[in-house]
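Just curious: can you write whichever protein you like plus the matching structure tokens?

***
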Amino acid sequence: MQLKKNDEIELFIETLTSQGSGLGRYEGFAVFVNGAVAGDKIIAHIIKVSKNYAVGIIKEILKPSESRIEPDCAAFGKCGGCSFRNMTYAEELKYKKERVRDALLRIGHIDFPVEKMIGADNITRYRNKAQYPVFIENGKLTAGFYAVKSHRIIPCKSCLLQPAEFEKGIEAFEKWARKNNISSYDEKTGRGLLRHIYFRKAFGTGEVMACAVINGNELPDFDYLLNELKGAFENLKSVVININRKNTNVILGEKTVTLWGNDKIYDTLLSKKFAVSPASFYQVNHSQCEKLYTAVSEYAELKGNETVLDMYCGAGTIGLTLADKCKVIVGIEAVPSAVENARENAALNGIENAEFICADAFDGAKELEKRGLKPNIVIVDPPRKGCQKELFDVIEKMGASRIIYVSCDPATLARDLAILREKGYAVQRLTAVDMFPRTPHVETVVLMSNQG
């Protein structure tokens, strides 16, 4: 039978995709169903048919999976934030472990077991950063998150991934917006003041930053807003505006102005102190980040005399947590503000054996190669797209005996590990860390050693 749009079929969900959708097969034909759980038997209503696959929605659950649970959030299935609030956490961890293993086999042709799948002690209220798009109509402010693949705001000011006090912060902005007849930004016209409400919280210290992303230069009646924010946050340390007047879907603009308090907040991570500014890259799950960095340290097995090269180093968090265990840390990062943060963080902790270079990963590595740097260990923590292929040529020439690859995407990780294998590096250890419970994302730490 050839599937057609609006067909309704009985389907058994065999597994989940990398995006968290259910996958079943109808007479051998792949059918993807959002919101399905592996083990579900359902009636699927087909909404799209292409040459190689179909997409359906759940019309009826005939027999629920043993792993299916009742979602604990009214926005689940509408908001694009969570994928797994309808399944047990044990099943989620099983899926993430299998996802890493499958990517290595299928893409990298690497048959290596996942040593550990490190789950989270807390799967709610773990995010230390929230960026809420807003919409104001008839004086009523709606804050929430975008629906999947759209810019339609799903109201959700009480998100279970965010600290509960962020909801009080939203209410402070609501009162201020209503009192002052504040307008929200309209992407079609380019008019309106308030674009996003943005909060950061340092879980190690409790410090909070509140930020309004605006299509303008100032906030009306700021003293009223400040008073409301002080009532919402017990440990408010910073209130800033970020000016973004461009017609873009990028959240933050280039200019940030501090209106009250400090221009940054401070957090502690593995006994080190870190400055966090509005634009800083900083892992959103504090406790899982400590587990991730502990795994990196365990794999590094530093004795005190090593030179460590930290690629894509951001604000220097990985390298600086290792600095007291090695001879030298050299970090490379392309974003100037992040390099400034890294240098400040080194000074904050009295670390004198760390150097940070502002450069593209490949260009920075080439410069260090010309200098004659011979790192014992190279740490790479690239963005989701993975590393530049040419970077591995330079790392190979530097003669690093070990590489620790920290990845937020199993697919690009598998691709890059296959390239490194061709250069004589073999996987020695591999751990997966659940940095983002209730979402499909998973972090991985891999140790490779040169077999040449």
About this structure: The first strand starts at residue 8 and ends at 16. The chain has nine helices and 22 strands. The chain has a mean pLDDT of 95. The longest helix spans residues 89-106.
